[in-house]
Design a protein that fits this description.
One of its GO terms (cellular component) is cytosol. It is found in: Cytoplasm. This is Putative pre-16S rRNA nuclease. Keywords: Cytoplasm, Hydrolase, Nuclease, Ribosome biogenesis. By secondary structure, the chain is an alpha/beta fold. The chain has one domain: Nucleotidyltransferase, domain 5 (2-Layer Sandwich). 50% of the residues lie in helices and 20% in strands. It has five helices and five strands, in the order H-E-E-E-H-E-H-E-H-H. It has helices at 8-33, 73-87, 106-117, 133-143, 148-170, and strands at 39-45, 49-55, 62-69, 89-96, 125-129. Strands 3-2-1-4-5 form a five-stranded mixed β-sheet, sandwiched between helices. Strand 4, helix 3 (106-117) and strand 5 (125-129) form a beta-alpha-beta unit. Helix 4 (133-143) packs across helix 5. The chain is globular.
Length: 174
């Protein structure tokens, strides 16, 4: 089949390849900024809660940890600092709520601002696409026949673990 210069799929594939290369570069820079070993924290930042997860120091498995009920940012930040100190966290993976088409939304901008506000902690931060994370976790909880109350109690920290696991699994690709 001859090449058709008007074929849009060629340009779409170029864009996808550029996006993949950019993500791999971000992942590589994040990995290089981390000390060898050390625990990472995953954050699922919502308007009402922040789900927290941690992984082991070899970056093999992520586990849900806790959920912070949001108040004012200064209080949220203090609780996060305590969590980071207690868990000996060396880097943050923050879920980025992109729109389904991959573009930013007002919620995305809010999470990016939250991420910038984490800079005083001095930790490397990786923004990780979290599309479908809460939905995937909710589906798993429904399949496990978890009650509505139980789902509400654990969904945010489990989404944080899902986000963190996706990032650490991707370390193998770089």
């Amino acid at each position: 089949m001859p090449f058709d210069k008007d074929d849009q799929s060629f340009f779409i594939n170029d864009k996808v390849n550029d996006t993949i290369q950019k993500k791999q570069q971000e992942l590589k820079l994040f990995r290089e900024a981390l000390p060898s070993g050390g625990r990472l924290a995953g954050l699922d930042v919502g308007t009402k809660t922040i789900g927290l997860a941690v992984c082991d120091s070899q970056w093999i498995i992520a586990s849900p940890s806790e959920t912070i009920r949001r108040k004012k940012f200064t209080l949220d930040f203090e609780l996060l600092k305590q969590f980071i100190t207690k868990q000996q966290i060396k880097g943050l993976v923050i879920g980025l709520p992109l729109s389904l088409d991959g573009t930013d939304s007002p919620r995305t901008q809010s999470v990016r601002a939250f991420s910038r506000n984490m800079e005083p902690l001095g930790l490397p931060v990786l923004m990780w696409d979290e599309r479908w994370s809460t939905k995937a976790v909710t589906r798993t909880l429904l399949e496990a026949d978890a009650s509505r109350a139980r789902r509400s109690e654990v969904v945010d920290k489990m989404a944080a673990a899902y986000i963190l696991q996706g990032a650490i699994d991707s370390f193998a690709m770089i």
